[in-house]
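Lab notebook page, bench 4
Experiment: in silico fold of construct C2
Operator: M.H.
Input chain length: 440 residues
Purpose: comparison with the prior construct
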Amino acid sequence: MKYDSWLTCVRGCGERYSIYDVMYHCPECGGLLDIEHDLDALGNRSGLEWKELFDQRTRTNQWPYGSGVWGKKEWVCPQIDSDNIISLYEGHTNCFQAQKLGQNIGLPDLWVKQCGISHTGSFKDLGMTVLVSVVNQMINDGQPIRAVACASTGDTSAALSAYAAAAGIPAVILLPKGKVSMAQLVQPIANGALVLALDTDFDGCMAIVEKLTQDPTIYLANSINSLRIEGQKTIAIEIAQQFNWKLPDWIIIPAGNLGNVSALGRGLVMMKDLGLVDQLPRIACAQAANANPLYLSYQTEFKDYHPVEAKPTSASAIQIGDPVSYERAVKVLKSFDGIVDQATEDELANAAALADTTGLYTCPQTGVALGVLLKMIKRGDIQENEQVVVISTAHGLKFTEFKIGYHEDSLKEVTSRYNNSPVELPPDLDLINKVINKAT
């Protein structure tokens, strides 16, 4: 069976464009572009047959289907030549039952989808494998692309630099100077990317990279590019697969540039349309209070939208005041009876620390989602008997400065309630025993 996908305007202008065209906006109205699939052709396989195929491919060594993304190739990018795929066997991340944390907060059926357990330490790998693979196909077909470029708050730059290095394609990274963690900064440097640290914020970097990529030989790799969304939607499919093809009552996801919630919604709807699941969850978007344009728009039922100047936040990966995928995200939230809430610096830091005391090691963006979860439980939005999955977007090891600052009680706008400092002692066994006895 031959499957196909194409670009089309999110506003419904109706024209179709090739996924190999270098374009990021609708030429008719300027709206964002989404990738659509031939659902009639995909529907020739039953939902049961798709489930069996996806399960059969999971974690195999058959190229490229062992990847969590490319195991769903027909749903992601069916027309690409498998020889041009650049994969680091991304995906298949753990969905962890956070039993102890759930008990502590009164939610026994709590799970954390640990997307940070990935090659570069964040969920961005899922989208970047698709984008870089398509660029690799384009180059091999003779298109004159000399580099891929992105603006980043950290995680996108790591994913792009790694996949571009694996493909042998030059990468250009624009970062806001002094606003990403050292662990995030060193990743593209180590992968050999051209890293430009600009004296501006993410939104300033994004404005510049959009101008740079008006040159068709420099390909735009931010999530405004719908190829990224296609890879990231496999998070939804993996969650269903990990629950034996059922979905939870709620999925809570950190929200910055809003490509992630857009992707989540696309994956969920596609499974429903093709008969893999019967019911869909509700979605909650979690924003940092210091970078909250979607939350403010939600307060007006999405009637008004105004970019904000994002203030400093520990959740630096979502410190974005003008998200490029706003239109996509609003469509998803309206379809899923979604809500948007925010977490202050104090709320996100203490939520992350509380989770860490139960064996997790959460990034600050996950802290935002957990902070919103606590508010939703307190308000009664989430009931004790409901199943909830929190999307953890990155590995906590990328944010060591945040962790140190918390336990030193030195983070701005934060009163550390779970800080745990080392006890400095001389090598005296009796004294050591006294301290242990007191603690236990």
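Observations: The first helix runs from residue 39 to 42. The radius of gyration is 22 Å.
Next step: discuss at group meeting.
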